[in-house]
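Could you show me just one protein sequence together with its fold in token form as a worked example?
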Amino acid sequence: MAAGGIGLAAGGAGFIRGIPPPEEFAALCSELTATWAKTLLGLQVVDAGRPEEYGGIRCPTRRMVHGRVGDTIYPFMHMAHRTGDHKYLDACVLLFRWMENRVSQPDGSWLNEIKDNWKGTTVFTVIALCEALRYHGELMDPAFRQALRDRLMKAGDFIYTTVNIDYGNINYPLSASYALSLLGTVQDVPRYRQRGRLLAQQALGFFSRKDGFVFGEGTPYYQASSKGCFSVDLGYNVEETLPSLALYGLLNKDEEILQQVTRSLATHMEFMLPDGGWDNSWGTRNYKWTYWGSRTSDGCQPAYALLAGRDTRFARVAWQNALLLRECTHEGLLYGGPHYLSHGVPPSVHHTFCHSKALTTVLDHGLPAAGAVGAASGTGGGSAERVSLPRESAYGSRSFPDIQTWLVAVGDYRATVTAYDREYKAMHNGHATGGALTMLWHQRTGPLLVASMNDYQLVEAGNMQADEDPLSMPLTPRIELQADGVTYLSCSDLGAVVTVAGEKERVVVRVRSKLVDKDQKDPAAGAVNCHCEYVFTPEKVSLSFAHDGGAGDHIRIIVPVISRTGETVEMTGGRKMVVRKARANVAVVADQPMLRLPTTGKRVFNFVPGLEAIPLAFGGGAVEIVFSVY
């Protein structure tokens, strides 16, 4: 796969306003699943002298076998069927033995990781093994097929007795609706199907009232924040929960579920960037955001591709994101972000085997016929060339009150501003808030500014990569104070107030916030008020940052500009920087002197969402920074 920076799909093709025929999308899915499967097969441990890893797929980065790697049985069975190559069948048998020896539990569950007590991911393993039996069971040796069936009954009993609507984050019980329904169908167990139906009906209560987001990615489930927000995470919703509900609806021909899922998919689609990236710069669980999705969920394609008959644009979402997955695939593995390779960061195999399942699901279930696209919603029926994603239109601004987030689309610029005040459980300083500009994107360059976590934390250490860079920092544009060992950030303020005004050709965003620490406390010397203004026009984006802190407070305004290693950077006169990208130049001009902060290498890198940047800093009480692309 081609190595490249981001700007990839967008920079290479511009605003492609069309969708491919189903056979072309299927060919892309076939290409990726074949590439990934071949690489994963080569990583399987076949040395019986290594009993703890024997049969597992060893992650070369983590130097371990991930607990959920047995899910790869499904794409391997698909490849065995597709190629006739018996080595994929043999690999499945070895994988199953590894699962039973290393992560299988007496209660019927499987552990998420060997040294992890979490068992909720059993629902996804059940789905994977059921799909393998459903579509490829006839290829299996009878003894192996029966062993899978027997083991699935134990897992089904675990889910039946353990997973209710309040179990874990909402992705587990809502995905369990499909797991139990599918298992009940494959094994002919009515009580499983009945419980799956109950969970699916309960799922209808977890769509936000105004916008239709799935909520429940974090607790408390039922209590709103001060701004009326519930826990929403874009990555988990589009790559796990909504695909599971879509598959449940299709399996059971449940039109009520399918209509609700279709509405919700349309809302989430608003956050897809024209290059296929998912803008999860604000989500509660964006500690696993990878730009193309989320680190350990399966992928958006089963929902968007399989429901494309209800909305033409869904096919475009599935296609564009799959193209981005291909762009981020190197040496046969899916890397965890667009700049992993350029920064020399190795990938986890977790991304690859999870997303292989998603594309395999699309291939096995089959795509809607081209003539059916758009029939249900009335959005299709025209020329495919006229189909575009919402953010390909320069509509001005849109508000999403359920997550206190605003999208801006002026000229070729796309932007996101958030004051979302729901944190993930007890974690503080996770996703950016405070009226931060969490995404600035341009059609010819891709991302220019992107938020990361305010504080990179290994919330799920087994599913994340450690950041060992001593000069690592957040990527979010912000006002920052370091005092007495405590960091105070404007992008941490949950109480920030945002106002948005303007038309299609000019949008103005104004923000009032404060510098606060992770516990929302002011600096010991007193409150520091911050005022930001973002002005968007087709020609340029002007960003103004100001604060009322004292001159001796060592407050800095920090703006990390997204730039891949290898791009030429020119500094002029201390107040101008030009970054020369593949298809355009980016000029950053300030009315105050700019300082390029030190980095360990040529760029700073953040795992959320896997991008490199050049960090700029400004002193004084105010600065105006103008971005233009030429």
About this structure: The chain is about 30% helix and 20% strand.
